[in-house]
Amino acid sequence: MRWDPTDPLQRHARYSLHAGIWGLFFALLSVPQVALLLGALSMYWGISALRGKLPKSAREKPGKGGKRGRRGVGATAEDVAGTSRSTEPDEAGAGAGGAGGGAGGRPPIPIAVTPAQADKAKRTAAVSGLVTASLTLAIVAATFAFQFVYSDFFACQNDALTQSSRDECKRHLPEELRPFLEDR
Of these four, 2, 10, 147, 148, which has the most CB atoms within 10 Å of its CB? Predict the structure, then answer.
């Protein structure tokens, strides 16, 4: 596993990525209020993941018994995933895989992730979250700006009681935009 679920900075990076993607979907599906919320959260989480530093208790190597400072025993990736990645082969694996290590003679899955791999995964997710958040916020800003600039057209459309009066609202739009908004 390339990410550590116990690391708050990696969690923020992943939250940033997921919120940015969902914000982009909501922006494209014309729900700008939800897209604005998700884009802002994604931007916050992405920046905090890139700028953040682990607290001293998390940076120190765990001592005897797996204790981390005053927080008690820290969970490992195997605890959260519910898997056991012990390096000792069990009886079922030894009979099927032979003495070659893992199943089919392959080496066993590595237990730990290097700090460089964890940092790269965090940075990639955080930057991707920032990019999607930026796109989301740009689409939302363009939507709000369009509604503000052409508010006369939208007010006329909402106040129209008949189809003929609704068709007269086109005079509030420039010639170039009329084909795009005819059916609205």
Answer: 10
